[in-house]
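Let us practice reading a record.
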Amino acid sequence: MASFLNSIPKECIGTNGLGVKYAEFSCLHPTLAKTYLPFEKFYDPVSTLTWMQDRPMIPIWACVAYVILIFSGQALMKSRPAWSWRRSLAFWNLGLSLFSWIGAIRTAPQLYYNLVNYPLRDNLCDDPAALYGSGSTGLWVQLFILSKFPELVDTFFIVIHKKPLIFLHWYHHITVLLYCWHSYVTTSPSGLFFVVMNYSVHAVMYGYYFLMAIKCRPKWFNPIFVTFLQLSQMFIGVAVTIVAFYYYNNPILGKTCHIRKENNVAAFVMYGSYFYLFAQFFVGRYFAVKVKGEKKKVA
């Protein structure tokens, strides 16, 4: 990585608060740089990163409060009529979709650039501060992590509208928040893969939810496509963790893999359980028919 920086113009090399040098993506691509705002370029994430590292209980307390609010909210709504906040829900989903589209546009080119210029081992093992965690891409990676807190509001709309709250929904929100926080504060190298996938899937998913909320879903947009994207994300997530395990257990001379074993194990369990649960949801929703009041799978 350091040798590759030697071939980059000096004006495109930044140094973050930890003294780590990195290549500013927007500077390397002048055409794309025109779409970047000044605060994005050469963004230094270290002050927020260290603040998060010093406060490991924040995501845990957030999840505890989330669960308490779910049960108390359901109890409160049990004897009350469902609210009708469809317009607020529509704006909420539109906002998350637009945010995710911007995040995907900002991070996906960096992942492509890294895969083209560095070996896969480097992408899964090297210090992310130099690979993608600093500068404009680092800003959108940091925003991705922090966005897992406001995404909990999704459940608020389910509760007030008295819709069924399935296990997959709240399990997904809790584990994603905990895992993303841990990955960020421990500087997981493989994080960019997951960030790009999640941004991209959420851009489409929340866009679909927005269209459903305003009752304007195009006939050609089959919801099965959204679930297929989610399943694909989980499958790739499992594959990335397996490859990372291989590199971690087979170090090469002079280079160590920056992976934290407990973080990679958590990613494997998390993505594996997501794949199972989403596959179960996929089959139950799209490949089952009701026969005499019971569900029967279609072969």
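A brief commentary: The chain has a mean pLDDT of 90.
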